[in-house]
Amino acid sequence: MLGGTSEARALALDLHGRPGLRVISSLAGRVSRPALPAGQVRVGGFGGADGLAAWAQAEGVRAVVDATHPFAQTISANAADACARTGLPLLRLARPAWTARPGDDWRPAGSLDEAAGLLRRGALWSRVFLTSGRQGLSVFAPIEELWFLIRCVDPPSGPMPARREVLLARGPYAREAERALMQRFGIDVLVTKNSGGPLTEGKLDAARDLGLPVVMVSRPAPAPGVASVADVGGAVGWVLARAPRPGPAPAGSGAG
Ligand code: NAP
User: Fold this and answer.
1) Which CATH architecture has domain 106-217?
2) pLDDT for 125-140, tens place per residue?
3) Closest C-alpha to 2, from 59, 58, 62, 52
4) What ranges do the domains of the chain cover?
């Protein structure tokens, strides 16, 4: 299982200890003190699709669930490539995207670059709440005219906006706390990736409460031709359908 998400942890917890199954969760190793899934865990990159295919064969992997974050595009493409080459069944588990509700003022962006362009053109905005994560901050670095509240799990490095405050925090985030945070920092626009899921959607409710616009970065296209499910239950069913069935009890072993 390729992980790094709450869904991956829930799937590992459900499958761990089931007879006939050995579940190995793989984490990229990006964040310090990651929440660890139940069962066996390995950490670090594989070395591209070749490395992933070789590792899976060495470990006797029989099926792969890609439960990585919807924006983790490279590892998903590598999984599709490695599984196609080795003939391994692959399932994509990706939580549904958020959809706008009445009262939302979403400004769609196809990428972080597009989001940065929208900010520069939004002449009325001056204070940005940027929640798109540590990676990709460099595209906002040239924006000198706006102030940023940058929230991430671990301290960011590399180019980032000069006028900023960095807030280190790990979700989940509740609606009321998000609203209070946006008010305290005088935020007038929120920037987020469309990650989906309940753990971080409090910021969307808060933005709606406050009448703030949201620059919503849409997801990258999924790897073509890969079966997918949107919930953990669907992934459990998919795995169990491929798990070896316990063999019949040996003759004479029944209660006598
Ligand atoms: P990415 O751009 O798709 O992947 C970059 C490289 O990181 C991959 O080529 C692979 O290295 C390694 N990698 C990524 N996920 C891995 C995993 N589960 N196990 C082993 N190696 C992995 O990924 P990313 O966007 O940096 O995300 C990294 C991890 O953080 C993912 O596991 C994802 O679920 C989690 N995450 C991402 C985001 C996000 O917004 N992107 C948000 C929350 C959590 P090799 O080529 O060497 O194998």
Assistant:
1) 3-Layer(aba) Sandwich (3.40)
2) 999 999 999 999 999 9
3) 52
4) 6-95+221-242, 106-217
